[in-house]
Amino acid sequence: MLKRSDFPADFVFGVATAAYQIEGSSFGGAGASHWDTFAATPGNVADGTDGSVACDHYHRWQEDLDLIRDGNFDAYRFSTSWARVMPDGVMLNPEGLDFYDRLVDGMLARGLDPVLTLYHWDLPSDLAVQGGWTNRDIAARFADYARAVMARLGDRVAMTATLNEPWCIAWLSHFLGIHAPGLRDIRAAAHAMHHTLLAHTTAMQALRADGHGNLGIVLNFETAHPATRSAVDMAAAARQDAIYNRWFLEALTGAGYPAPAMEGLAPHLPMGWQDDMAAIAAPIDWIGINHYTRALYRATAGAWPAGETVTGPLPKTQIGWEIRPEGLYEFLLRIKAQAPGVPVYVTENGMAWDDRVDGGRVDDRDRQDYIRDHMAAAHRAIDAGVDLRGFFQWSLLDNYEWSQGYGPRFGIVHVDYDTQKRTPKGSYLMLKDALSR
Ligand code: IFM
């Protein structure tokens, strides 16, 4: 395992979470988000659960921040819940902002850098019924929310991301129907693919005008390999790569939308989308990469994008995700080539396993190997010239894994959901040792 001293002196080691996955959405005057209502709809979540209590972080945040400090981490990547801060998407809930105010002060008191994500998927339901991400108006609403949060926290956060994983917000949620709002509609998806970027840039310009800095965005990347060397499978993988890995990065860096994705999406984009592209390419201060796995694609007959995944041969995590650390190295180099001069952070990386507590310990050897190999890949990328500034583990705690419920455990700290007892796993102890000064 590499140590802190193997990385540049100011390299940031952190852990990441997201509001809906840990806080408990029923506490503190929060409004309903589209995740509350999606989860309340039978059949949407594997175990029928929701985030109403989750890890009860809303009440246990001090204990959770102590864990981060005691693990020798430097930073905590957290998100504010739009539905907590603005229960109807517009009016402020002072109790919600007070919570995040205490949380940020709690980080600073423990010597942790607060790394804020403004949107990690808890869209207020009142905005969702107005079309949510399919409605252009979302950009102005999101900018208002971003300004309100930053007016309160902006003097103390070290870095701020507008959105977490726009591919999930747009494609997974509006085309694949797996996340809230659960649509399977190409026109809704195309609108969301554009409006996420518009919301990002509208919020960023508003925050810059208010004097805030160190603003970025967090993108997820997943290697798309062809299942065979046949021309049709290679084309299917290329389409997937364009939709998933190229769309956001290339638009943000002024290259426009990639042709293999435009083949299917162009007719469904909102009218006048071209006029937004210059604004979408406004400079950002950093890019976050979330990376977990790769997938194999084969061509199918039928409607665009005419591809589907097949099971690959590599070792897999609890939820069937192939483990391939080279993918992280490759994407870091791709970002360097596509966005030269923009600092990069690994804002999420980790794996799910069905961890059990045994004699007060959790022996998560597979996760320890995963972390070791991915941190080594990040280190190789630094050696290859990538301006990589930090690495955040997903996640501090076992938590609500969206439509997969509480089954998959991604934490470096085990959570017993009946008692809310936290038990640091072997991976936490390994990192604590590697990061000691
Ligand atoms: O749990 C999610 C997180 O909310 C976003 N990135 C991927 C993680 C694992 O699926």
What would you note in describing this structure?
The chain is an alpha/beta fold. It has a single domain (4-434), classed as Alpha-Beta Barrel (TIM Barrel), CATH 3.20.20.80. The protein has 15 helices and eleven strands. The strands form two sheets. Strands 1-2-3-4-5-6-8-9 form an eight-stranded parallel β-barrel, surrounded by six helices. It has a two-stranded antiparallel ribbon with strand order 10-11. α3 packs parallel to α5 and α8 (166-174) packs antiparallel against α9 (186-209). The longest helix is centred in the middle third of the chain and has 24 residues, at 186-209. The radius of gyration is 20 Å and the shape is globular. The mean pLDDT is 98. 5-hydroxymethyl-3,4-dihydroxypiperidine binds next to loops. 5-hydroxymethyl-3,4-dihydroxypiperidine is lined by residues 18, 21, 165, 290, 348, 394, 401, 410.
Biggest beta sheet summary: 8 strands, parallel, barrel
- The count of helical stretches stands at 15
Q: What is the C-level CATH assignment?
A: Alpha Beta
Structural classification: alpha/beta
Distance between the termini: 15 Å
The hetero compounds bound to this protein are: 5-hydroxymethyl-3,4-dihydroxypiperidine
Mean pLDDT: 98
* SSE pattern: EHHHEHHEHHEHHEHHHEEHEHEEEH
CATH superfamily: Glycosidases
The main sheet orders its strands as: 1-2-3-4-5-6-8-9
How many domains is the backbone divided into? 1
The tally of strands reads 11
| Chain oligomer state | single chain
CA-atom Rg in angstroms: 20 Å
Helix fraction?
A: 25-40%
Ranges where pLDDT stays below 50 over 5 or more residues in a row are none
Envelope shape: globular
CATH topology: TIM Barrel
CATH architecture: Alpha-Beta Barrel
